[in-house]
């Protein structure tokens, strides 16, 4: 019996070790990358949904109309209470660093994608030299860790009804930050000298939540596609024409329940993420081919990430597209500075930037590398 128990423990230990080992190592003349499957356990406070799960797309349409209603703040109550919950997940992450080592490579940029995307948002493969944030950061000497949020890409699949909550996403980001700072899952970088957080949209809200709750885990923050004008979100959601993802593309969203939604067609994708003539139509089609559904519970719990001013004392940049529709109502020129000063009043050097002639998805727009240059020049200025 003891030997049998010992064998079981040994097998479990090997399985746990295997789950965290790099699954792929690849490199070229400019960068070397390792991919990991990272086991993470979270304990969080979850919201308990009070609404019925979606049965069909008519339920989705009716539900979005409720969210978008003029009196939704008073008439719409999606939750009945809260509960404590502990869950274990596997998170797919990739670390890339310059093949020719640089001093700057000891700074890791931890990049979190927004709703509708997985980690490929940061490493666009079509015309990569013009669009890939990872490639640009590598060319500037930085290392980048980017990952699939829970429910997307190669990370664990959970219910979109009550599983992929903002509090869980935030707990995962916190654990990833702790792991990276300790030198785990960092490939050839080893233990970093600094860790900066980069986000897009929902990923920016998550990163904002992190530096608010745990300012000691970050040395700098770059928030893209971020603003706080809640009045623009209902019409933006309506513009997407949200539908149940597994009804839109047969076989593509295996493992996702009816609570995961995606735009009804590529025009809905364009309406939400893009603007006018600020993008290449081929890039729109590419973005649609690698898009990820959003969970309805993610939308409903997003506001829990905004808890007040942060005590973070490092550098913070908020950079959003001039014509960002979902977060600025199509005009960001005078909407960023005021709220940013409220949330990041303790930042070393708060900068708000309106990136010209772009929509919500800056990375997929013309002059994406122009935004990257502004972002990394800022970090370099502050020796991050």
UniProtKB/TrEMBL annotation:
The keyword Hydrolase is annotated on this UniProt entry: yes
GO molecular function, one term: hydrolase activity
Residue ranges constituting the AB hydrolase-1 domain according to the UniProt record: 110-364
Keyword flag Mitochondrion: no
SUPFAM superfamilies noted in UniProt: alpha/beta-Hydrolases
Entry keyword set: Hydrolase, Signal
Residues making up the signal peptide according to the UniProt record: 1-20
UniProt name for this protein: Alpha/beta-Hydrolase
